[in-house]
Amino acid sequence: MLSTLQCRAFLLCLVSISISSTWSFVTPQAMMMMKTTKTKHNKESMVQLNAENTDRRGFMGQAAFGTSLLLSLGGLLPLTNPPPAFGDDNDVDDFVTTESGLKYKVIKAPKEDAALAKPGQEVVAQYTGWLDGFDSEKKFDSSRDRNRPFRFKVGVGQVIRGWDESFSTMGVGERRLIIVPARLGYGDRGAGGIIPGGATLYFDVEMLAIQ
Q1: Per residue in 165-203, pLDDT tens?
Q2: Active-site residue set
Q3: Which residue pairs from 74-79 have beta carbons closer than 8 angstroms and sit at least 24 positions apart in sequence?
Q4: What global pTM score does this model have?
């Protein structure tokens, strides 16, 4: 018969063997898998962060505004945090029409002596975009809903042509409603299954800063 002390020593020995065996399973293949999984997770996190800086065509194009316009949206965004009602702003009689066909209406004047962005300069903007008219149920993207302003370089093709044209003539602090015809937006091909081909786009855009 084993004494009580001998039994306790035997049990402690078994526990030690069990712990050692467990770690032997984790090493080295399992540990490598754990490290690989952690590395993969970190890379995925970096990809998610870098996605915020993709160009505007990723703004709606990769979404699939893939992104950010353009973002991995599974459908039209709900009307969370909607802007103030636009009333009769779908009536374009009081909009300015440019030579390209872009229409805009200034709803907030720029700051006094506000500078204009030069080609290649980065601007910081807020926006909301709709199909079928301002403040419609078909809102497809909004930086305001995400509470994350959008950054891009003006005049270098990072965004749709209607955006390049509009932001190149806006001063800091200015807010506009813009109507972008398909040829200045996503053309006949549309974007990411969210923007249909030939769609006219309606945006509420605001210039926050020029970097």
Answers
A1: 999 999 999 999 999 999 999 999 999 899 999 999 999
A2: 127, 140-141, 160, 186, 203
A3: 75/194, 76/131, 76/137, 76/138, 76/139, 76/140, 76/194, 77/139, 77/140, 77/141, 77/142, 77/145, 78/139, 79/137, 79/139
A4: 0.62
